[in-house]
Write a structure and sequence with these properties.
Blueprint lengths: L1 H16 L9 H30 L15 H28 L5 E2 L8 H27 L2 H8 L18 H17 L2 E2 H17 L18 H10 L10 H6 L13 H34 L1
Parallel strand pairs: 1-2
Helix pairs in contact: 1-2, 2-3, 2-7, 3-6, 4-6
């Protein structure tokens, strides 16, 4: 995060906001700047990618599902707008520790003992490490002592849209993001890779709420996508994972998505519409017979 902070200082804060006499490495100044960056960055990522997803990927026929709430999209957005600033406070403190040099983030590939090989491995390591911790944190948030206080607000959305992706109780949202911040304090990671992965996980979080249940056949047993996560919202005790199905299989909480079996929310909407169409067709046919009968009688 120090790369983002340095760029913000160079192009914006130093020339336009703070006096030149206030050192850029002052801890209070860094904290204020990081709080601003975390909030603006969080809103920018959320609105940009969730809006793109909503208009170009999300299947709007899901909004006809009986469990889709009235004014749900507006409610998801307003809830997120309210909670993101609170979520950003503890996040900023972890970014501050990174900027102050307490993490194992590096500037140069040459600083890694095994160079580019280690850098590539670190990407997969990051994904598997965070997936493991998020699984157990997420599952823990479903415990009866925590669920009502923390995680229930996110489960209001039974059939979520991309805008539900960040609509969490602030502490819930921070706890589920914590593994991303723990990793660079435990394992070496390149700073640019870290920023890239941070953006990627935000996009992924949006994508698993987008109602696009298509997954390449060979990835279906491995990837925890939107079909899996929508079932988590609908059926509660299944598919806690973030990226992969591995920990759900190990923890006994894996459920083959209902959408893969032709029983998902889209299938339900289609069935509803077919029944409605048949009902209208039946009523029209009945009315036609009645009119024909009356016509014959008149003749």
């Amino acid at each position: 995060m120090d790369l983002v902070l340095s760029a913000a200082d160079y192009y914006f804060f130093t020339p336009y906001v703070y006096p030149a006499t206030w050192p850029e490495d002052d801890i209070f100044r860094q904290a204020v700047n990081l709080l601003i960056i975390t909030n603006l960055g969080g809103y920018a990522l959320y609105f940009f990618f969730a809006t793109l997803n909503y208009y170009f990927v999300f299947d709007h026929s899901l909004m006809k599902h009986p469990q889709f709430l009235e004014n749900q999209v507006q409610r998801e957005i307003l809830y997120t707008i309210r909670v993101l600033p609170w979520m950003s406070i503890p996040t900023m403190l972890l970014f501050l520790l990174e900027v102050r040099g307490y993490s194992k983030l590096h500037d140069d590939v040459a600083e890694f003992p095994h160079g580019w090989t280690q850098l590539v491995v670190s990407v997969f390591s990051f994904l598997f490490f965070t997936d493991m911790l998020i699984y157990w944190i997420h599952r823990g948030l479903h415990h009866r002592l925590l669920y009502k206080r923390l995680h229930k607000p996110h489960h209001i959305w039974k059939v979520p849209t991309p805008f539900a992706s960040h609509a969490f109780h602030p502490l819930d949202g921070f706890l589920q993001s914590l593994p991303y911040h723990i990793y660079p304090f435990v394992f070496p990671l390149h700073k640019v890779v870290y920023i890239g992965l941070y953006i990627l996980v935000n996009i992924w979080t949006i994508s698993i709420h987008d109602g696009d249940f298509r997954v390449p056949r060979f990835l279906k047993p491995l990837i925890n996508g939107s079909a899996h996560h929508t079932d988590h919202h609908l059926f509660f005790d299944y598919n806690y994972g973030q990226y992969f199905t591995l920990w759900d299989r190990i923890g006994g909480s894996f459920k083959n998505p209902s959408s893969f079996e032709g029983k998902g929310p889209l299938d339900y909407v289609k069935k509803m519409e077919e029944e409605k169409s048949n009902c209208h067709a039946g009523n029209g046919h009945k009315k036609e017979k009645l009119l024909n009968g009356e016509h014959s009688k008149t003749e």
